[in-house]
Amino acid sequence: ATPVPQLEHRYDWLGEVLEGNDLISSGLAMKFRIDVPDHTKVCSMLLDKEAATKLEHAVRNHYWYQWYLDDLPIWGMVGELTSTEGDEDEAAAEALLFTHKALSISYNGPRIIQVNLTSSNPVALRAGAQLEFTYSVQWHATDTPFQ
């Protein structure tokens, strides 16, 4: 995986710059119609107290992110809160961070038609925890026409 400071940044429009939007390459290795095995490692992270606090804030405030693949938008949540049946008190819930991203990509001929993201492997956010971030990609042929 490419270190974050070395990732490619891109601004398409002045409005994106003024709004603070920054398109950054994910650095994930991906090639058309070539699957990436399940749980391919992206990077590791040892959570210190500051990082755990920031990530917990993101999960508790329902932060989400947006990716693009071939100009198709993909949205995902940073994490989730644990809950028990009938428990509506989010303050008592534990914040969990998703550490695995699975992309399912449908194609027709040379065109990508659809992309689905499934986030999984939720991990508790605790200082001192070692996190392993992984991803996988599966390509599927479809008869759906490109529009």
In short:
The chain has 147 residues and is mainly beta. It is built from two helices and nine strands; from the N terminus they run βαββαββββββ. The mean pLDDT is 89.
Structure in words:
It is found in: Membrane. Its main location: membrane. Belongs to the nonaspanin (TM9SF) (TC 9.A.2) family. With 147 residues, the protein is mainly beta. It has one domain. Strands 3, 6, 7, 8 and 9 form a five-stranded mixed sheet that branches. It has a two-stranded antiparallel ribbon with strand order 1-2. A two-stranded antiparallel ribbon has the order 4-5. The radius of gyration is 17 Å and the shape is globular.
Topology, please?
Elements: E1 9-10, H1 14-19, E2 23-24, E3 36-46, H2 49-60, E4 64-69, E5 72-77, E6 79-81, E7 95-108, E8 111-124, E9 130-141
Parallel strand pairs: 7-9
Antiparallel strand pairs: 1-2, 3-9, 4-5, 6-7, 7-8
